[in-house]
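Work Package 4 report. The design task specified in the project plan requires that, given a folded chain encoded as structure tokens, an amino acid be chosen for each position. We show below one input record used in the internal validation round.
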């Protein structure tokens, strides 16, 4: 009998991932961001992390023209306080 354990993702982990992936002015397309995600929980946590970082003015999203990829980029500035507590989960 094989058991399958579901992976657990948190918004906090995704916030950390997004800040690392977009540091030093590296843009990240939403297509590339969500590519390879298999679980609904991972997709939702990632989306919520993007939304939270945009709300806190840490990320911006842009689309150069209709039907182009949406690109997210980190807004450079002083190093702020942590966005979420490490134990927060969806």
């Amino acid at each position: 009998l094989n058991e399958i354990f579901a992976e657990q993702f948190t918004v906090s982990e995704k916030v950390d991932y997004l800040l690392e992936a977009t540091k030093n002015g590296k843009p990240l397309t939403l297509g590339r961001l969500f590519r390879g995600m298999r679980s609904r929980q991972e997709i939702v946590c990632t989306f919520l992390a993007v939304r939270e970082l945009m709300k806190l003015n840490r990320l911006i999203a842009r689309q150069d023209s209709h039907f182009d990829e949406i690109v997210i980029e980190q807004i450079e500035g002083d190093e702020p306080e942590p966005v979420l507590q490490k134990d927060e989960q969806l």
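The chain has a mean pLDDT of 85. Validation will be extended to a larger panel in the next phase.
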